[in-house]
């Protein structure tokens, strides 16, 4: 009987232990299956602002981009130029091919040219020349196109030297200073020029001297990272001249071909701008001469752009113009107006937000694009 009692007690103990084990296992199972606690929401990292821009993803140095080569970029961008500007030439040709070129028609031709922002004086000149040439020569429609092409080409002036001075002398790098009001596309243009130079196997350093906007500095840093170009930056609000100085100094030491300096474009007043850009240029030239001063203008701003251009011309010796956003405007005539205003050539045109949407300006190709 005693043996039976021990056996029953033993079985009971085993059953209790097994039951306890089962409950504990189930308990652990539930703990594993339980949904994880919600993640703590942390502030986005500083780069997020740059990340948000579709054209400026953060790319690690291991994944350097190869910028588009000049030849394929030109073919692509010429088509884009023709699609944004072709309306002007088509409109003019339609008017010129009318049976009778009466006063109303000449007035419409004048209005079409003015609407494209060519400016009053050049418009008058073209209309006068067309009137004389088409009357004297009694020209057929087919010739009207050739005459119009010649007149537009003369306005754009193919004789201007549009080469970018990106090389220095005496062992110095070329130094390109990029100026213009905020929002014109300065920082983007600096990034795009760097890519053009990298595609041509030149060594480049960038100076982020637009220290008033942290986002502009970050934006430029991202442009540089994408193609493995060093970007010299200062703290937010630091002296733009010291950043420019440091960029050129490091560029000289590293033996690069070109240093491109992005500047701040606050048009607070002429004196302030003059002091700021004057100082930037002076300190740079302690290291190496500035070889090119590019003024970036937004083609969509019309007369306003011309007023800005005038202010910058008085402040700094502009040597070339970059017209941005020509893709977003049918007013390609601004090329003529701004060259007339400043007496310096348009050297580059921006034709989109893509990283390789910047092209050297070519007078003949531009006029052909106008004629559609
Ligand atoms: N469609 C089009 N957009 C352009 C072109 N060039 C620049 N942009 C856009 O214009 C906007 C302003 O360009 P930014 O380079 O930031 O202008 P910024 O002059 O440096 O202005 P801050 O950085 O404020 O000094 C951006 O959204 C660019 O993508 C262009 O040729 N075509």
From TrEMBL:
Question: Which GO annotations describe the biological process of this protein?
Answer: SRP-dependent cotranslational protein targeting to membrane
Q: What is the protein's membrane topology class?
A: Peripheral membrane protein
Q: Where does GTP bind?
A: 180-187, 262-266, 324-327
Q: Name one GO cellular component term.
A: cytoplasm
Q: Does the keyword Transmembrane apply?
A: yes
* Catalyzed reactions per annotation: GTP + H2O = GDP + phosphate + H(+)
Cellular localisation: Cell membrane; Cytoplasm
Q: Which family does it belong to?
A: Belongs to the GTP-binding SRP family. FtsY subfamily.
Q: Which NCBIfam families match?
A: ftsY
Protein known as: Signal recognition particle receptor FtsY
Q: Which organism is it from?
A: Nocardioides szechwanensis
The beginning of the lineage is: Bacteria, Bacillati, Actinomycetota, Actinomycetes, Propionibacteriales
The gene that this protein is the product of is ftsY
